[in-house]
Structures are given as C-alpha cells and as structure tokens.
Amino acid sequence: MKHSNVFYISAIVCIASLTLLFSSCSKKDTALNDPSKVPTVEEMTSYLANQGFDQKHIVFEKDRVIIEGDIIITISDLKQRLADAKVGPKTEQRRGTYIVGNAYNTNIKFYLEPGIPTVWRTAIEGAVNN
Asked: What is the gyration radius of the CA atoms in the chain, in angstroms?
C-alpha cells in the first residue's frame, strides 16, 4: 500500500511540532530557583530593626509578620520593601497600603502635648476627624 506525500509531510510536521514543544518546555527557570534572591528571615528582621523596631517584638507567622503586637505586614509586602530598599533612594515619600481610617480601625488613641498652639490642635483634630 502506497502512502501519499501528504501523509509523510504531515507526519514530519507533527514530529517536528512535538519535538519543539517538549524541548522548549524542558528549560528550567533559573530566576525562580535561585535561593540567593529570596531574603532570609534574618535579613527581614535586620531590615525591620534598621527601621526602628525592636527585634524582640518581631514575630514571623506563615504568611505575615507581626511587629510590636499591633503592626501586621504580609511576607510578600516585606520582601518587596526589602528589595526596594536595596535599590531605591531613601529620601522619597511613599504611601503605604495600610491606611488608617474608620473602615479599618475605630479605636486609635493619640496624645497632643498641652503646649502646642491652638491652631495646630484644631488642624490635627480636623485631620483625624476626616
């Protein structure tokens, strides 16, 4: 039984496609497997200590870090902050994702020194009420 040229061409194309598919999927991603790029717990603790937090009050849980009993930061956010600190300038202001407001917390207490001017006191109270 004779096969036509179309059969041989389609078989070659199929084999070439499968070879290409399997050879391109066998490459390993070195960026994901490089353990030197993942910050360790010691590096993250050192970073937080340099930010002014006491190392004794930093608790690592499975997916977050609790600092001084009331500050919660996710591990991924802390890793991102650590990476930004290594490459970026330290003089820029940045807005964080942890916003204080009535929707998040209603029992925040603050203290105003008795010696501050009345204008400042009014401005601070107005800002907090918003």
From this structure: 28
- The 3-state DSSP class for residue 73 equals strand
In DSSP terms, 71 is beta-bridged to: 67
pLDDT in tens, 42-55: 888 988 888 888 88
Tokens of 69: 């009993």
10 vs 56, residue with greater confidence: 56
Q: What is the pLDDT of residue 3?
A: 60
Record the pTM.
Answer: 0.45
Q: Is 103 within 8 Å of 84 (Cβ atoms)?
A: no
Query: Which whole-number Å values give the CA distances from 107 to 22, 62, 70, 74, 123, in the listed order?
Result: 59, 27, 13, 22, 20
d(CA 58, CA 64): 11
Which residues, in sequence order, are CB contacts of 100 under 8 Å at separation 6+?
Answer: 108
End-to-end CA distance of the chain: 87
Those residues with Cβ within 8 angstroms of residue 98's Cβ, 6 or more apart along the chain or in another chain: 72, 73
